[in-house]
Design brief:
2 domains; alpha/beta; 371 residues; Rossmann fold; Dihydrodipicolinate Reductase, domain 2; 9-stranded mixed β-sheet; globular; 5-stranded parallel β-sheet
Length: 371
């Protein structure tokens, strides 16, 4: 079975997430990066191609040129990965899907909810595979938490608490990675809510299997002169009657990548933290606390499949990301069993951004969650 061929959009000189995509995609040797448009600037795109050590002729100046040229090759790309700022997601996805090329995209799906709706229509018309890199759903113990809740181990879910705390934007946005995230022309209508809030939101729904039905949002731009939000707190109501709290902030000095999920049912609770991803705490109603560790023999099938090393060997962000690409390879090969998020998750994430931004601005109180 040959390796799938990947074209990368974005991820040029100075980028963080592009190299992460490349490492994750190639970890299992099922996928190989062979082409790309690494920058909107042709010179920088060529430099990006050099850094990835691909054929110089396959470092293209724009997406349309890449798609046309690759279609004429016997070894042309099988899919593209979109790793550019949010404003570029829809144009790149549209061109690719309409050219018959599958898409793996960074989150959020697009810059606005209306764009996400347009993208969903394109996916429906072209019938090409489209998936999103909500990375944290690839962690083995996140998938174990999902299995535990689905199996009723904590009973009926009553309370969901998810937080994503960072401090790197507590001051002036310095450097390429910070600057585009606080620029509405590049990021869209959301700041922290679009950058990390959607991760927290997806994690909560992915693990619990519940769907948000209402929210009450309080978003703020704390740093003087900043247009987009950098501090968010949102109350949630779920379709089973459970209540939830979502916190997403990038102005909490001292915090690094503090993503944490706690879910409480009528028989127990679970607690998982991204900064200690190889441990999952399971609380029982009788007072016992159980520690579940990565690669434990008792893990569910989904968690075992996502585990790569024996117990005691830490697995983290890169491996979780690679699990999504392994899932995506399953999709492209027509196999079953993939848990990788798709356009429905993308629409819900964009709805969270849009509704939270506008509800907070208008002080609307509780509103219905509608995609």
């Amino acid at each position: 079975m040959r390796r799938l061929r990947m074209g990368l959009i974005g991820g040029g000189p100075g980028a963080f997430i592009g190299p992460i995509h490349r490492i994750a995609a190639e970890l299992d040797r099922e996928i190989e990066l062979v082409a790309g448009v690494f920058s909107s600037d042709a010179v920088r795109s060529r430099l990006g191609g050099e850094s990835y050590r691909i054929d110089p002729e396959r470092a293209y100046a724009d997406v349309a040129t890449m798609l046309y040229a690759e279609r004429g090759r016997d070894d042309g790309i099988d899919f593209v990965t979109i790793a550019s700022p949010n404003a570029h997601h829809l144009p790149a996805a549209r061109l690719s899907l309409e050219a018959g090329v599958a898409v793996m995209s960074d989150k959020p799906a697009t810059a606005t909810l209306n764009e996400a709706r347009e993208l969903a229509a394109i996916i429906g018309n072209t019938r090409q595979p489209y998936r999103l890199s909500y990375t944290y759903s690839g962690y083995p113990l996140v998938r174990e938490a999902r299995s535990l809740i689905s199996a009723g181990r904590i009973g009926a879910v009553r309370k969901v608490v998810v937080e994503y705390a960072q401090g790197w934007l507590a001051g002036a946005a310095m450097g390429k990675q910070a600057e585009w995230r606080v620029n509405p022309a590049q990021a869209g209508e959301g700041g922290a809510i679009a950058d990390i809030g959607v991760h927290a939101f997806h994690l909560a729904e992915f693990v619990t299997g519940l769907r948000t039905t209402q929210l009450l949002a309080d978003l703020a731009s704390v740093v003087p002169g900043r247009t987009l939000d950098d501090d968010c707190q949102i109350l949630l109501r779920f379709d089973n009657g459970a209540r939830g709290v979502l916190l997403a902030s990038q102005i909490m000095i001292g915090e690094r990548n503090g993503l944490r999920l706690r879910v409480y049912g009528d028989k127990g609770g679970i607690d998982w933290s991204q900064e200690q991803p190889n441990r999952l705490t399971l609380h029982h109603a009788d007072g016992r606390t159980e520690l579940i560790q990565a690669a434990d023999a008792s893990l569910s099938g989904d968690a075992k499949w996502a585990s790569r090393t024996p117990g005691g060997h830490p697995e983290g962000y890169l491996e979780a990301f690679a699990n999504l690409y392994r899932d995506f390879a399953r999709v492209l090969r027509g196999e079953s069993g993939s848990l990788i998020p798709g356009i429905e998750d993308g629409l819900r994430g964009m709805a969270l951004i849009h509704l939270s931004v506008h509800a907070s601005r208008e002080r609307a109180g509780w509103i219905n969650f509608e995609v």
